[in-house]
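Hi support team,

I submitted a single chain yesterday and got back a structure, but I'm not sure I'm reading the token output correctly. Could someone confirm the output below corresponds to the sequence I sent? I've pasted both exactly as they appear in my results page.

Thanks,
R.
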Amino acid sequence: MPMSSAPRADGRSGEELRAVIEAFLKNSRQPALLEPGEDLLPLTGDNHSLEFHGSRLVLQAWDRNRNLARRVLAIADASAARLELTVERFAKREGQLFLLDLARRGGSEMGRRSGRLVFRERFRLFLRRQFPEWNLAELSAEANLEHSLSPAFPRAFLRHGQHGWAALACPPEGDAGAALTFGLIWLSYLRARERRVTVEGLALYLPLGAERAAALRVLCLDAAAARFELFAYSAEDFVVRIDPRDHGNLDTRLEACRRPEPNQAGAWQHVRELRGVEQVARPDGRVSLRVRGLEFGELSGAALRFGLADRRPAGAHHGREIERLVEELGRVRAVETADREHPLYRRNPEAWLESQVRREIEIVDASLLPEPVYDQVPAFAGGERGILDLLAIDRAGRLAVLELKASADPHLPLQALDYWIRVKWHLDRGEFAAGGYFPGMEVRPEAPRLLLVAPSLEFHPTTEALLGYFSPSIEVERIGLAVEWRQGLHVMFRLTGAERPR
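Hi R., thanks for writing in. Yes, this is the structure output for that exact sequence:
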């Protein structure tokens, strides 16, 4: 028997081990190598080898930064998504090595978890530098769904005597906009758990260049409720402390408000008059045409573009097609429909909620004027935010920001704060009156009110904890609606700030 065929620890010969590994790599659409504690190493056709060195089967892989060579002893576990190898490392120490197919679910999940563990160790080094005298009592990158702790952001608990700090880091590819939400949730969790320790505040680590949103939010938090420290790290792990006051300039714009042209409808007046059609004037002079919040067309001057997925210019011969579209939307997006699983019924529930709020805004808040009510003003860069913004004014001339959400979302409070910050920015500069908004009214200079509107059972359980960190100068009210809000609005509760429902 050749030396290369000597049996291995799992009973397979070297040739058999080699055949299994080669078959896995051949059948993998996106192969990668993972050694626990190290970065994932994608495998291409020319950066790895599997060869016998005497009787030893050696797997070697390399990239620009490292060269890995391991003797394969056995196959501990095998599936279509991953191959777990027992290997011999330096000094004849056994260890694990994984071959993954990132194109398969099991392989991609393990790849992501590996990346989280690698970044967790980078986070450990950050903390040792910024908190050298503190004991790192806990460091985790695991999920805790019961307490809404995300595995996407490693979190730490630092302790020094009877004092503690919460810390959380956002990976380079992570959602920096979500980091503060989960950081505050972690801070609240530790304060509830660690009864004998004073958890003073939260240290938040963000990729360099992605700290602006968190800095602006921190400026609106209550310094008496907790201390907040922001740090930014570079690709080379150079960490700097961030002063939120250095990020006061906003990336926001407020376009001049133009009224629709008096004869804008033109040949499309009959479309505007179809049963169920809602007309919402945009600040740029265009008119949005909707059925229960779902937009199907837009008027600009005498031109109409229509369609749900792809908009196209409408000609006279499209009249009947548009009517059928409106009829179908009216039938499907009906409260009494039997098919509540229809895609058009379920599509964009926030838009449907907005439609109801516009129609019955005085039920939401009796002080608000029914017109004008603007949406997405000021314009918000960065695409879909998951919530819908309305800007209204009360009878005394004070602005109100309404944030609408039809399903539970832990990010609602801080995303609403983002919008409030921008509205206040333009209000402080007198730009709403100068831009033609709320014509005929005097817009008062007081900071706007912030109204969070959602079905009463759809406020996320962490909402009160998050609002408890808001500055007292921000007037926040939560308005919980009855579950059948599509039939009509009925307010179940009104809560101020972090007040909890009875």
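A quick pointer for reading it: The first strand starts at residue 31 and ends at 34. Let us know if anything else looks off.

Best,
Support desk
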